[in-house]
# Entry
Amino acid sequence: MGSPGESAPHGVRDAAEFVAAMRQLKARSGLTYRQLEERAAARGDVLARSTLADALRHDTLPRVETLTAFLRACGEEHHAGAWLEARKRLCVADAAPPGGPDRQHPSQWRARSFRVATAAAVAVLLAAGGLAGARYFDSREPDGSSAGGEMKRCRNDACKGKDPQEFQCLGDAEVASAVKSAEGLIYLYYSADCRALWAGIGSAADKVVSVSVKSGEGDALSLKRDRLLRDPAGPGSARTPMLPSKGLPRHAEVCVTYPGMEACTGSDGMSRVKPYPSAS
# Structure
């Protein structure tokens, strides 16, 4: 492989140039899509070759989870900060309307600003966590079918209580917000295809006491550790069943309770960790 950092996108001007730099990095690595998928799995990440091929085929910014898993598979994790910073810069530039926010309807500007701020916060959070919790769960094969050959889909209310993997909701999942606790990273995922959200626990799922997910639309889901869905792709990781959500959640949150501590993603992308008072 080439020297690490050779293709870091320091001067890219748009998403097309960013993806071009990713293609250059793949070419320099000499690895096939299958080999990158296998290297990612060996590092505890999930990088479906179909997901990566799709990301490199289009001139749009990849999701943070896809990018970080790709960089780790290529041996570029030490330069991930430069890639994430470049991605954040392009996200902010793309969100700014010509002439400033006053040229756009205020509600549209606030919604776009929230999405950009959340993406930036998650990027910083993942970078601070050493990328170990950056996961993108995609169970679909290149032809779009599930690993078992059976296609199950749901949407909105029909997804309530369902497994996002079993019902093909992981393919377009994005991180709506995240929080880092002493036990690891916690994510709030949202699928626009399925119009549903769920919580992902990056590690230490065996220490969870309970999990609460709120949709921001008055719907909520609370469950104990024994009802979590274990994720075979990451040791100690798990996720909750889905909760319906009509749009990208603005005031949704996930709270995970551990012995002596509660960690919440909070609303509007804010996060908090509350140690419980000592019993002594």
